[in-house]
Design goal:
The chain is mainly beta. Helix content is 0%, strand content 48%. The chain is built from no helices and eleven strands. The strands form two sheets. Strands 2, 4, 5, 6, 9, 10 and 11 form a seven-stranded mixed sheet that branches. It is globular.
Length: 126
């Protein structure tokens, strides 16, 4: 079992930056692809960005490419989401997710992830 706890959300002005963290429990963290998803009010959960087990490969949604980066520290069982040049449309609850065993490359499908954090609110004001 993997427990994920996100932190770092908050209120920021457009153009600002935030760094989210996701701390994982358990001994399988380094064997799992990790991803970030987000969900705005009235919308479906959408893929943001993901990172491979070693951290050598990442992939992101077109909407955040060039602005958001993901990294991980396997020694600390933590994955990070650095968000720069934030826009009001980035406002959402952000969720950290652990990929299922065997998931080598992060995907955009929530069904490929089997553990989720409780979410952290990010609000970007205009």
């Amino acid at each position: 079992q993997v427990q994920l706890i996100e932190s770092g959300g908050g209120l920021v002005q457009a153009g600002g930056s935030l760094r989210l963290s996701c701390a994982a429990s358990g001994r399988t963290f380094r064997t799992r692809t990790m991803g970030w998803f987000r969900q705005a009010p009235g919308k479906e959960r959408e893929f943001v960005i993901a990172i491979s087990r070693s951290g050598g490969n990442t992939n992101s949604a077109v909407s955040v490419k060039g602005r958001f980066t993901i990294s991980r520290d396997n020694a600390k069982n933590t994955v990070y989401l650095q968000m720069n040049s934030l826009k009001p449309e980035d406002t959402a609850v952000y969720y950290c997710a652990a990929g299922k065993f065997g998931l080598i490359v992060g995907t955009a499908s929530p069904s490929d992830y089997d553990y989720w954090g409780q979410g952290t609110q990010v609000t970007v004001s205009s």
